[in-house]
Amino acid sequence: MPDSHDLAVIGGGLVGSAIAWGAARLGADVALLDEGDVAFRAARGNFGLVWVQSKGDGLPPYANWTRRSAALWPDLAAELSSMTGTDVALRQPGGLHFCLSEQEVEQRAAMISRMHNATGDIGTRLLDRGDVRAMVPGLGPQVQGAAYCPKDGHANPLLLLRALQAGFRRHRGRYLPGARIERITPRGADFAIELGTTHIVVRRIVIAAGLGSATLAPLVGLSMPVRPVRGQIMVTERLRPLLDWPTAQIRQTVEGSIMIGDSHEDVGFDEGTSATEMQRIAARALATFPALGQAQIVRHWGALRVMTQDGAPIYEQSGQYPGAFAATCHSGVTLAGSHALALAPAILDGMLPDELRAFTSERFHVPTV
Ligand SMILES: Cc1cc2nc3c(=O)[nH]c(=O)nc-3n(C[C@H](O)[C@H](O)[C@H](O)COP(=O)(O)OP(=O)(O)OC[C@H]3O[C@@H](n4cnc5c(N)ncnc54)[C@H](O)[C@@H]3O)c2cc1C
Predict the structure, then answer these.
(1) What secondary structure does DSSP assign to 1-44, as a single string?
(2) Measured from the CA of 179, which atom of ligand 1 is nearest?
(3) Which of 255, 242, 271 shows the shortest CA–CA distance to 159?
(4) CB within 8 A of 363, min separation 6: which ones?
(5) Fewer CB within 10 Å: C terminus or N terminus of the chain?
(6) How far is C-alpha 329 from the geometric centre of its chain's CA atoms?
(7) CA torsion angle 250 253 258 262 (round to 10)
(8) Which pLDDT score is estimated for 37?
(9) Domain 227-307 has CATH 3.40.50.1820
(10) 12 alpha carbon to ligand 1 midpoint, in Å?
């Protein structure tokens, strides 16, 4: 007899691990299958923001889902800490987006006003030159202002991944690393997942394989059109406290390192780094904080985001094969609270809630003439 489980999650990155942990903590018998370090893995190369202020501009359900996740994050961090002893270094002091020109100030003001009108006031406000200097010492003369959102925060993404996987195993989840899945066969109401010479049979399945999802999803009647978008990140030596608030481009970790990032490059599946892009993001960081010119860069890397056409997540249950679900996004840290504590229970119930209706892949199926 093959092994059987209530649920299999394909992909042990941040999305899959959060869903698997969230389902296992409710008592489900869950298998988490992951290809491993040879695969592209956004989860091991990201910036660690729990970022709310700009998420969902133009798609209110995405803004609401993100806000819900940020609100669930303290519970997630507390439960992971008490269960695994891992402090994922969650800090939610609010976040800043620095504007380096009047044009950037105007663009940010327009975005704040759009989001306010579409989804309500969450306290995001524009700080002028004087306000932002009073709040953050050491800013360069080019900084014209900033947007501040009290819901923003950050965490240690690698500790988050470790804690989710350790917690999953504590809940008796079955973690199968080194499992590159290529065949999934619907069998009546179940799914058979081929694993080398054997297979496992599951009642429900979640495709959460990051960039690997695009080829797996059609096997169970789903569509997950995702593409890679490279981001490069630099990390400095540990410095004295310099910045109490995370920003989309610069954040100081609890250990004191400054992370510098926020590049978006369309370079296919190239995970490398380039001097020109590093120079560009370093120049912006220096214009914001001239003192960073004295800091040593100790590491840098490139990693691939898992991006949909409109940047919003895909969550969907297969119409052809009920019990098969798609889950992908490009904000796996931010959305970890929602994935673990809201999406996982819905998947176990066999039905996604109405608030996720806007996230099906149907929005990409534009009819052609
Ligand atoms: C530079 C950069 C900065 C980022 N910054 C932030 C940030 O500040 N805040 C934020 O919220 N998000 C950020 N992200 C995004 C975040 O890292 C991703 O949203 C998240 O990692 C996506 O999780 P995932 O599980 O979908 O994909 P991944 O983390 O890529 O994991 C996919 C997993 O699927 C497995 N897999 C693939 N194919 C198969 C297969 N056929 N069979 C079995 N397993 C398979 C792989 O082994 C991998 O472990 C950033 C990403 C990048 C690249």
Answers:
(1) --EEEEEEEE--SHHHHHHHHHHHTTT--EEEE---TTS--GGG
(2) 43
(3) 255
(4) 310
(5) C
(6) 6
(7) -30
(8) 80
(9) no
(10) 9
- Rounded to the nearest angstrom, the distance between the alpha carbon of 44 and the centre of ligand 1 is 7
In the chain, where the domains are located? 3-83+157-225+313-362, 95-150, 227-307
Asked if the 3-83+157-225+313-362 domain carries CATH number 3.40.605.10, the reply is: no
Task: Please tell me the number of Cα atoms within 13 Å of 279 on its side-chain side.
Answer: 3
Tokens describing residue 267: 């370079």
Q: Point out the residues of the chain with pLDDT beneath 70.
A: 1-2, 368-369
| 307: nearest Cα among 206, 176, 213 | 213
pLDDT tens per residue, range 99-109: 999 999 999 99
Separation of CA 337 and ligand 1 centre (Å): 15
User: For residue 175, what are its two tokens?
Assistant: 């973690």
Residue where the block lists tokens 């009920």: 322
pLDDT in tens, 57-81: 999 999 999 999 999 999 999 999 9
Query: What's the one-letter identity of residue 227?
Result: R
